[in-house]
Amino acid sequence: MSRKPDMLRALRHRNYRLWAGADFLSVAGTWMQVLGVNWMLLSISHSAASLGFGLFLQSLPTMLLAFVGGSLADRLPARPLVLTGQTLHGLLAAVLAVLAFSGVDSVWPIYAVALLGGMVSALDGPSLGRFGAEVVGPEDLSNALALGSVISSAGRIAGMGLAGVLIPLTGTGTLFVLNAVSFALVMAAVLGMRGGEMHPLPRAGAGEIGIVSGLRYIGRTRWLLVLLGLAFVLGALGRNYQVTMAAMSEGPLNAGAAGYGVLSVVFAVGAVLGGLYAASRPSLTFRILFAAALLTSVGQAVSGIVPGLLGFALVLLPIAAGAVVLDTTVSTRAQLGTEPTMRGRVLAAQTMVGAASGAVGGPLLGVLCDTAGPRAALLMAGLVTLAVTCGAAVLLARCLGHRDPVATAITALGGSRRVRRPETAPRARRSAAARGPGPAAPAGRSVRDARRRPRRTRA
């Protein structure tokens, strides 16, 4: 019997300990590279629009190629796909280092690397998810995903902090070199995992492969569509705090760049607390999912009317925690309740939903902040996500076959444990896991890849 507390139960797996270390290196390296690329683009173009175009190029392949990557992940062994993806990302980081040290004065080579990196991320992201599920197995998947959220937040803080120190001292080239080295270390961790301690998922058969088969499966799995729809709306209107925090700091709070920095730290702390809470739960249920959705929705509406920087920061803390719990629970429920042979394509669908929510929500919230004001934008977005959460609870209850879906949804939102699990997968296969322990990070790279948040394709 392991003496580790339940919160750390995934760490009893030697392979996961290697994976967690690789995850931290992945996220730290990703954020070092993100800051380095942003600084290079600004130094060359002196235009913030150039940053947005670079992010667009990195995210575009996810919308176009994610299902291709999902089909590959469901059909081919995960480890070779993961190693191939890490090799390609390492080579791209090395190319950026060469560009930085050579003093390139054009943004187009940087854009080309961003586009190629996005393509690699879209193709190998689902294989990272399947491989991560094989590292811990279904019984500890939710805990591994939650710990991944904590590791992601810690890696982001470490990577951004180190980048802030190194850029003025050594320039951006050093950041890219360190990132390339980190890919090699991640590959070493993957190669060092014991095959006998893995939990392999079955691969898709001849009649189950392909994009069309995946789309049909997702289309007929109604409860999964409800979850993805809820994730899209909350991701678009309730998760783009990079926009609203900046608008509030510059506008109503009159806090400037310093206030924005404080709010960013508070958000990171809240994300860590949310990850720790999710990791402490023996399982992540629909009750927890909708409680987190309600918390973030009500909190967002309240954040639009609370006065002062301190008050806004205090409301922001539980919002960030609830967002991490919500994301982790959606991933856990979606992937533990679906067919293992479809897992890569389910992961691809989640990745596409995350990318689409960011692409839609960021500009929409920006327009609302400019036209109605940041406070009104937060209030309206919070009320919309609250209504969608309640509607999703009713729809989910109906999809699960409850005769009185409204009463069942109210009971579920109030804390009942009686909402039963989806019946889409045969009972013997339902516990098969699907996704990697790490959560989302900067677009195009991350050990968990999935999600949201820009993220790095990494082991």
From TrEMBL:
GO terms for cellular component: plasma membrane. Residues 417-459 are annotated as: Disordered. InterPro entries: MFS_trans_sf, TM_effector. Residues 433-445 have a biased composition (Low complexity). Keywords: Cell membrane, Membrane, Transmembrane, Transmembrane helix, Transport. The chain crosses the membrane at residues 21-42, 48-69, 81-101, 173-193, 223-241, 253-277, 284-302, 308-326, 346-365, 377-397. It is found in: Cell membrane. CDD domains: MFS_MefA_like. It is a multi-pass membrane protein. The keyword Transmembrane applies. Residues 450-459 have a biased composition (Basic residues). Pfam families: MFS_3 (PF05977). It comes from the Bacteria. PANTHER family: INTEGRAL MEMBRANE EFFLUX PROTEIN-RELATED, STAPHYLOFERRIN A TRANSPORTER. This is MFS transporter. It comes from Planobispora takensis.
